[in-house]
Amino acid sequence: MGKRQKTRKNLEEILQSVSEALFPGNLSKKAVRVNSRDVDDDTPLHVLVWRGDRYGAAALIAAGAKVDAVGDMGETPLHVAVSKEDISIIDLLLGAGANPDIPCEFGDTPRERAIPFAFLPRGTVMLQLVAAAVIVRGSDVLICRRRLDDTHPGKWEFPGGKAEPGESLEACVRRELREELDIDAEPGAVLWRTQHTYPDGRGFDVAFVRIRTFTGAPVNRCFAEVRWVPATELPAYDFLEADREIVRLLADGTIALAPA
What we know:
By secondary structure, this protein is of the alpha+beta class. It is built from nine helices and eight strands.
């Protein structure tokens, strides 16, 4: 017996499906068109993006929906898609020419809102931005071992962590080092940057930042172990996969540990 084909809504049905969201209680008085606006200036495209309806959003775009329409609080459909972390619709909007640099009333652009997920050059995939600190004392580098109850248990890594929404790389480094090691750090240059996706599907854009100076003595506040290790001995430790390339580069001197 053949499979039944899924019936797709036509444009009129798609517009009707957003009527109640745009004009509650007023369906018979207000015809919904591709670029209609509600009292908050949201459009049918805003509604479908919020719902995660990629097919409907694509149909509206094909019918002439404005991908950069500014809606409630000055947000474009791309703002909404980024907030929902809907990579498929982000890809759709960017492919249709959506501008990731339009600020909203909250003060951020879609690109800035996406900082924790780092737009890749193609603009179709987003990764979680991570700041990792390279702290040097003479020829030694500070490394940390994850607790056994953490993800990737027992793995070694450089201190640092995920950027929060709207947080710059430098601010992330400072915050993470205060939280993890109780030190006040002054970030320097990015020594290495890599993108890595783990088998569980989580992807990261990792920036390894040299720390110029710091005040206070490092205190282990969250790791199984914190250790100063000669750079040449780093490859002997079982590091996170995303850290292994810079470990090799630090160990063989390709990335020098001269004063920051």
